[in-house]
């Protein structure tokens, strides 16, 4: 866990550099691929996912290590062959995990945040889940376990496999000739992120496109059908924490409202989007049937609020990096309280970008959490030993942040709510 935390010192800047290169390339091509609030939402989603992973906030039902220990029937000796088998096995498992997340109601909640952006760019690749509480998909690694591929090989292969899925989240790269027959390309994955009927639930592969062609889920990108991105039930929020649980909350509500006990039980494992008939009639939800009618979510941030949102995200990101690099020194249970603070920061930031009237309340609660942590620790988790005035600066920052939130709430948020007659964003969107 600590080693993973330290690798983020290199991974995070690399991702940000690639996002900047994409933005530069898009401008040269005369394309617009990023919107400020959407980009902050995506980066915030990635940050919450990393914090969750660093803190180990998941429960492993069945592990790959257990399968190797109890089920291996052979051991591969060649180092290069081990790595090759591990990579292919990881990709095969990834295809099926990805496909199941799209096909079953309860599993869609684990993945919906990745598709929630109505843009398609490198930053949306960082929209990763925090709702994966239980980990049981190691079962799809059974072929590698039977061959005795050591667990530590995946410590090398898994990050490489994950990074190989980042680059193709872009509209700045067209078709890539013969590589289209072998690898997942930007064109293939644009299809996967689209909500056009012809593109829905296609191209699940992660590195090798062969799995889709083998199992009948391949669809090429058509010049006559430009992809429209997002989800059929729009999130209507920039808040990645809300997005992570919107679908689950709808399932809970549907299970409560439907009259038939059979529907209460089966809706969890029915195809994604299925709802009991009585609930559909009584509690309809917005579904995008014609993608050309999609109006992208936009809360019309002023330049001042957008710049302040970037400041808030930057401070939150730096505070998270401090946690990653001081994980062992901070230790438990303090590191979990620190993680709570990061989550509260993301929630408050994105609530303000949503122009939700509760933004000031959430910022007050965030400041209260931060000040409570300072009072408990005596400083900001050992920051004073590096910067003598560091804790005082953070305390001042809380005050400034609360004042800025109050200002934007009294001006932009109030005006926006009055103009749009909006209620605060609810969990069910």
Give a verbal description of the structure.
- The structure is a single chain.
- The protein has 429 residues and is mainly alpha-helical.
- Helix content is 57%, strand content 1%.
- The protein has 18 helices and 2 strands.
- The chain has a two-stranded parallel sheet with strand order 1-2.
- Helix 2 packs antiparallel against helix 16 and helix 16 (334-353) packs antiparallel against helix 17 (359-377).
- The longest helix is centred in the C-terminal third of the chain and has 31 residues, at 390-420.
- The protein starts with a helix and ends in a 9-residue tail after the last helix.
- Residues 423-429 have low confidence and may be disordered.
